[in-house]
Amino acid sequence: MQFLYFLQQAIIWLITIFYLYQLVISLFSFVKLKDKNKKHKFILILPAHNEEAVIGNLIGSLNELDYPKDLYDIQVIADNCTDNTEKIARDMGAKVFVRTETDPNKKTKGYALQAFLKTLLSDKNMDYDAFCVFDTSFLKNTFK
Known about the structure:
By secondary structure, the chain is of the alpha/beta class. The chain has a single domain, classed as Spore Coat Polysaccharide Biosynthesis Protein SpsA, Chain A (Alpha-Beta Complex), CATH 3.90.550. It is built from 5 helices and 4 strands. The protein has helices at 2-28, 55-63, 85-91, 109-122, 136-142; strands at 42-48, 72-79, 95-99, 130-133. It has a 4-stranded parallel β-sheet, with helices on both faces. Strand 2 (72-79), helix 3 (85-91) and strand 3 (95-99) form a beta-alpha-beta unit. The radius of gyration is 27 Å and the shape is elongated. The N and C termini lie far apart (85 Å). 18% of the residues are buried. The mean pLDDT is 88.
């Protein structure tokens, strides 16, 4: 008989602990943890190597976003460009990070992004919540 009493007490305690856990979780639903109306700040990164044919259209489309203009920046990585990519990007209002690499093994999009992000993250005033990378070479190959 004593075994059944201990079993009953164990079950009651388990149910009580589970109930209290649910009660605490439910009470936390009334606590406002963060402002849901906060607008986030983004940086839109466009790595580009000789993309003068498409960079203007892409920046133009990004400038038409239905989002406050002061909450996103367009940054073009002009990676070893020999055409007018840099000039077009600046004329369209984008910030331009110029990268010149002499090592042929490091003339890739990955190294360009790595160099840019290292520079961006080392800036103490960097206040972006997120970043998005747009592949301009995909656009160039798609819209020939």
